């Protein structure tokens, strides 16, 4: 489908934004909550750290594949472009809408959670959570309507602040000397079946906490030098996140042992109360708000890029390709914001999130498969970055992704059936759209 010059995304982003959107789109309140749940399932300090490292290695190998794909096809919308090129229009249509749905839920969720944390600081606003959530949605929509550069600067600023407050929390934990460091409360055997089950359940939570690691790929078309910036952003951002996650867990279990924090709904608050006293809960709330503002900004930008790409390929309305003077895909942004507004009113996110995570992992798996397909199908396609240890690294990440999907299908059969039904229904919809397009 043809575009006019007015419908071209501007190349205004660089390496700094790439790292910022990866960090901003990954580190949220999950890292403040999941360590307690994982401690309850594993109850072994070294096994917990191994699990976080294992998840980190998974995303690093994934980044290796995405670096080649995104520099080979630097187009707005990320994954579905590679899948479409490798497996055809229907695969692109299905994966594109899967990816869009998965990334459309977070903005509404983060607006709601920010409003809930603000109420913790200001209890008199308790009856206004929906109003506060909508106000944040409108404010961030206005920010991105004003232009890509403003959104980029805000992302970089909030990501720097986010890393800063987490580093300060880690340092404060390690400076605390009120208890002896005795992390291993139990010598739980590593190879019991219960521990093995707990390890894989924990890994699912950890992968969810790492989700967002490939966010820079959605903006490849707007990068001034994608061939260099995207691989550097993927690896640098991923390593920063992995190091922070491992250090945060180590710091939490330095202050309080695994057995004490097991099954805690908000580990960070428990630790902060010990380190900072009665002000601990307020400090953690402020950290959570900074984390959420940064991740909200990233997720306000991502769905619009996917919808822009789908519109350009005829899988959504032609007006979805409209770009304003600031370089923002304005119609795609406004449509996505309207969806977020509706979700704020609905307000039930748990089912939607598990549904979205399932879809995301399917898209990742298809993207990894597309790398192998395109190496064979189009060997002469320019590849500014080539995946190291290919094909073994890609095969390894495909096997890991299939294992995750099997685990999801087993533990979340309802959503698995719904996704199968959507996939079957999507084909006649695709044929109808394709017929009208031609």
Layout of secondary structure:
Elements: H1 15-26, H2 30-42, H3 45-72, H4 79-87, H5 89-121, H6 129-145, H7 148-175, H8 193-210, H9 226-255, H10 258-261, H11 267-276, H12 280-312, H13 330-346, H14 350-377, H15 392-411, H16 413-437
Helix pairs in contact: 1-7, 1-9, 1-12, 2-8, 3-8, 3-9, 3-14, 3-15, 4-5, 4-14, 5-6, 5-12, 5-13, 5-14, 6-13, 7-9, 7-12, 11-12, 12-13, 14-15, 15-16
In short:
This is APC family permease. The chain is mostly helical and 438 residues long.
Helix content: over 70%
**Mean pLDDT over all positions:** 87
- Report the β-strand fraction as a percent range: under 5%
Order of helices and strands: HHHHHHHHHHHHHHHH
Largest sheet: none
Given the helix and strand composition, which structural class is it?
A: mainly alpha
Strand element count: 0
Instruction: List low-confidence stretches.
Output: 1-5, 181-191
First-last Cα distance: 10 Å
Separate helix tally: 16
Alpha carbon gyration radius: 22 Å
Described by the principal axes of the CA atoms, the overall outline is globular
Protein name: APC family permease
Organism: Flavobacterium zhoui
Main location: membrane
Subcellular location: Membrane
